Amino acid sequence: MLWSRALGTKVIVIPAYNEEATIAQVVREAVQVADVVVVVDDGSRDQSAALAKQAGALVVRHAVNRGLGGALGTGIAAAVKLGATAIVTMDADGQHRAEDARRVLVRVEQGDVDFVIGSRLIPGDAGGKMPLRRIIFNSIGNVLTYVLFGVWVSDSQSGLRGLSRGAAESLDLRTNGMEVSSEFIKELKEKRWRYAEIAIPAIYTEYSMSKGQSLFVGVKTAAKLIIRRFIG
Q: Of 41, 120, 164, 212, which cross-links 49 as Cys (Cβ 3.0–4.6 Å)?
């Protein structure tokens, strides 16, 4: 088993589904700032798993595609078994810089917070501007997250987030899809995690935009969040 011994304290978790175009470069950069990089291959039909392994990641594979939430749950559980004391999640499509993942890890390791959000929507963003369509989607996500779970954060849909070991051990993700981003905020509220936000650049490429959230996906995600809030 890959969890037979602790390999390090700083672990980056990267969910990946058919990301062979970008995964190798993302991993090569991530291994420079973390002790271990765990890629969860979420039922990919391409070479994502092989390329991630060649680039230096530990790869956990789902036999079928479970969705973003399922992949993050698997990856964070693996990080805990590896002995992680600070965990960062980041996307596989190149939206996040390894340098910003390092900054999130450092913030978690300061020990005064349990959860860190890399926010693209607070002052201090040194990168490109978020496209208007994404600003609208994210703003709706922020409002819905606040209405359902009672916590206001500036970028509830950010995929770059950090967790302390205690937060990761108490995490109880029950959703498999894109709604997992807001579910982290639900966990923050229910588990009374201390949290902080740090500014990160909004980085978008033609490739990452092509994999983004559509209106239909956004509506479906919102419906699942409402069900999660009132049914469990």
A: 41
